[in-house]
Amino acid sequence: MSTERRPHILILGGTGEAAALARAIDREWSEAVRLTSSLAGRVEKPGPLPGHVRVGGFGGVAGLVAYLRDEQVDLLIDATHPFADRISSHARQAAEMAGLPRLGFARPLWRRDPVDRWIEVETVEQAARAAGDISKRAFLTVGRTEIAPFAQSGDVWFLVRLVDPPEAPLPLQNHETVIARGPFTVAGERELMLHHRIDLLITKASGGAATEAKILAAREADIPVLMVRRPRPEPGRRVSDVESAMAWIRDQSGLV
Fold it and tell me: Residue 4 to residues 55, 76, 100, 143: CA-CA distances in angstroms?
């Protein structure tokens, strides 16, 4: 790594973990590194981030490789959502082609308690098919891009939670939409589910503390959880906390 310029760190972000890491890097090395956070643009109003922020895709693997080379990126950190498997695949391939160190940074999975009533499936489509058989009033928290399959879930009424208001009507016959951004509290989640007489929570195994409250609330209320398993992570070094990511940056860059 060149000693004549500041190391350039690119974070593929859009998650709370990515933002926390960007802030930690800025606190530790604000004058010593060049920091860029790249967001996919799925959230309308992302919070403020230190360093440079770019929004939008790269144009596939080739586009990301070109960006890494043109912008002289030294370290690539994939801190995207655990279900952004296509982006993670592109990041791995691009880092290999550009010859760059790459770190995967993903929030830890939720821990299953023996009393939890989890029904685990592999895909959102499987969850949509199962929902019609086991629920009448479901709390749907899979993100706006994954709602369409649930239009085929029979007569289920859905409480849909989104971060941003939908740009178009949702493709669901019976539903109510709640616009809210975490972190949430267990008491608030439990009250929300009881108020709407929810009999099933539908979610992805995203993990992390910001949205774990719904899992704990479902446990307390003895509500089953229809859980979409995470995609298999890309091979390579992975961490699940800011401290470990910072240690990796030190090892790779020589920063102190």
Answer: 28, 20, 18, 44
CATH, domain range 118-228? 3.40.50.720
Nearest residue to 165 (alpha-carbon basis) of 56, 82, 45: 45
Check: CB of residue 174 under 8 Å from CB of residue 157. Answer: yes
* CATH 3.40.50.720 segments of the chain: 8-108+232-253, 118-228
Residue carrying structure tokens 């960006």: 67
Which CATH number is associated with domain 8-108+232-253?
A: 3.40.50.720
Tens digit of pLDDT at every position of the chain (256 positions): 445 689 999 999 989 899 999 999 999 999 999 999 999 866 556 678 999 999 999 999 999 999 999 999 999 999 999 999 999 999 999 999 999 999 999 999 999 999 999 999 999 999 999 999 999 999 999 999 999 999 999 899 999 999 999 989 999 999 999 999 888 999 999 999 999 999 999 999 999 988 999 999 999 999 999 999 999 999 999 999 999 999 999 999 989 8
Helix-helix angle 16-29:242-253, to 10 degrees: 50
Q: Please compute, for residue 171, the number of CA atoms within 13 A of its CA located in the half-sphere on the CB side.
A: 11
Taking phi first (over 0 means left), then psi (-120 to 50 degrees means alpha), and beta for anything else, what does residue 59 get?
left
